[in-house]
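Write out the 3D structure for:
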Amino acid sequence: MRAASDAAFPGRVTVFGDRRLPAPATPAGYAALIEAYRLNVPLPRRGEFQALTDAEAAAVEALYADIFGERSQARRCRLSAPASPARP
């Protein structure tokens, strides 16, 4: 097992443990911890292995950009708009 300061989370992989992945993916969750710390533990069961393919990662990034890009644009507009006059 690696020391915490030596751990590096994996990027895209095509093989995890002794399993070949159907497409390049980035391990996430339990799978990422196993890979980063080189843990000698059983591989995750089928439903627990989490990884994002490149297409899924791009879709998630685009979604976040749409969501947070619009919010930050709207916030910038509100901050730069002149203040409405105070009501008596």
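The chain has one domain: 4-80.
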